[in-house]
Amino acid sequence: QVQLVESGGGFVQAGGSLRLSCAASGRTLSNYDMGWFRQNPEKEREFVAFIYWSGGNTYYADSVKGRFTISRDNAKNTVYLQMNALKTEDTAVYYCAARPTYLRGFADNGNTYDYWGQGTQVTVSS
Asked: Distance (Å, rounded) from C-alpha 100 to C-alpha 53?
């Protein structure tokens, strides 16, 4: 079992920045590729970013490319999402999720992830 806890959400004005953290416990995070997803009441869950277990390659949704950066520190069992130039449409609950490395490959389908955090709210005002 892997327990994931997100933090760092909050209120920010458009154009501002936030850094989300996802702390893992139970198992070492180096056995998992990691993803960030988001959801607001008006939309289905949406893929945001993905990082391999090694941190070597990353992938982003087109809507956040160039503004968000996913990273990880396996020694700290933590994954991060740096969000810059925030827009009102980034408002959502943000979730981190863990996907076993044996599944191999990039994945933007949340159904292939085994473990999820409880989410952290990000609200961007105009």
From this structure: 9
